[in-house]
Amino acid sequence: MANGGWSEVEEIVAGLEPEVEIGVAAHLVGTCCSWSCHGEVVYPAASTIKVAILVALARALDAGRVSLPDEVAVSSEAVVQGSGVLLELQPGLSLPIADLAYLMIAVSDNTAANVLIEEIGLAEIQETITGLGMSDLQLNRRFLGRLPGPDEPENYATARDLTMLLTAIAEERAASPVQCAWMLEVLGKQQKRDRLARFLPDDVTFAGKYGSLPGYAHDSGLISHRDETLAIAVLTSGFSDPYAADIVIGDIALAMLDELT
């Protein structure tokens, strides 16, 4: 497009410093329109993998194995450093699954994510991801609250697979329509909005999940305007200034808004 859209994204990527690596993928929900620039490159997933945990939880809700009001104890083994609030609360707390899902997504609570991993099962979550066709989206361990050691597994993601997962939610293929609507509601409560949502106009809605590690800045989400929705993921490494990464990710989302108009 002459005035924006994917052509502008390509210009943004081409103008980055040589040490910066970036993977971008997008899909216009309900169509066959997709875009990718290094979208197949694998990165440490950071907290973007929590969307996969949410999908596995939604399927467990569909199967009747759990329900949102069920209270689950926050075990001492689940508590880790990093983002979130449960780390600072009193031990022995029990919370409804609905609250744990909210904390995992909206404030990226690592402990809440670990409690849900314990409840659903690591293997089942990975089977859910693989069953949806996302071979490069891998949950290989619970959250550690730190970088993994040399002998510890890592969680991985690609921009392409995150976009596919978000598209499956938006198209009501990731779980039942009821649970997909619930996931969209939870993702819409995301509180960190200084990446993909950074420059979006007020009449555009955003629902998504970011991820951060030293040297990595990611974001993924659904951008909706009028009757169209764009699934998009941007994974980055190599920015010396993390705030510069936030701005670039925001610029990419704003450029892709032209694909919705």
- The name of the CATH topology is Beta-lactamase
Helix amount: 25-40%
- Please report the first level of CATH classification, the CATH class: Alpha Beta
Major sheet strand order: 2-1-9-8-7
Outline the biggest β-sheet: 5 strands, antiparallel
Order of SSEs, N→C? HEEEHEEHHHEHHEEEH
Number of strands: 9
Terminal-residue CA separation: 11 Å
SS summary, helix count: 8
What would the average pLDDT be, to the nearest integer?
Answer: 95
How big is the Rg? Answer: 17 Å
Q: What is the CATH architecture term?
A: 3-Layer(aba) Sandwich
Task: Identify the overall geometry.
Answer: globular
Category by helix and strand content: alpha+beta
Number of domains: 1
Sheet-strand content, in percent, reads: 15-25%
Which residue ranges are poorly predicted, with pLDDT under 50 across at least 5 consecutive positions? Answer: none
CATH superfamily: DD-peptidase/beta-lactamase superfamily
